Amino acid sequence: MTLTSPNFTCSPAIPATPDPAALTARETFLADLIREAGALARRAFADTSTPQVGMKGPQDFLTETDAAVEDLVRSRIQASFPDDSFLGEETGGVATGPVWVVDPIDGTANFARRIPHYCISIAYVADGEIRLGAIYDPSHDELYAARQGRGATRNGTPIRVAQTTRADAACLELGWSNRLPNATYLAVLTAMLEAGANVRRAATGALGLAYVADGRSDGYAELHMHPWDCLAGLLLVEEAGGRVCGFLEADGLNKGGAVLATAPGLAELMSRATNVTLREAPN
Q: What pTM does this model have?
């Protein structure tokens, strides 16, 4: 199998707010789909034969499983909702109108090294808003799900962000890549550490965001992410009572951009350390 980088283009979304029944149909479909995709990933992870691993760039890995999972997800969506668009990390797509945004394996470097910390991330965007988001961790059978305006859950149980307010009690996560100079990330890391926070990196931004929604982390920041890495997680955090940046408002669907999600009590610290503006807190 030949491993290649994606080719994709994004065009401005056409407003298309789904009616509640249509959104419910997609919500039910998404829960089943992401578990099916997760089962495929879990079987591949358990395979002890040497996986085929390619490189899309420095520290940017690609396995056969990334392609297989994305092919499965794309085919199921096209069969069930042929009028919806598709944008995937590996095969690209065109984000026109309602669009499914898919990361087939987030945490591919972990997956390739047999570290059971990876996930599948799927978001559904319509009319410029993230309407649905799901992140599934196959290794621990944890399904995070959110629907705009209806809260966030883990395996069906409602979740909330942490109530942490003290920097010296905070556990934050900072992601980084070679898209920006190391010095930029080091400045952010220094600001967090000097404030007294503990900072970690677990190599999957989507799960990092899900952990903020679940109160396992107090905040997640990365100064450039692609939409498939973060859209589902941003919806989870906001629906769990957290504060997030305006990723879509900054044309993140087309260009990617900075990501910040945090417990409300640490919003000022996180925004100051990263120089990323947060959306206004909902009333």
A: 0.90
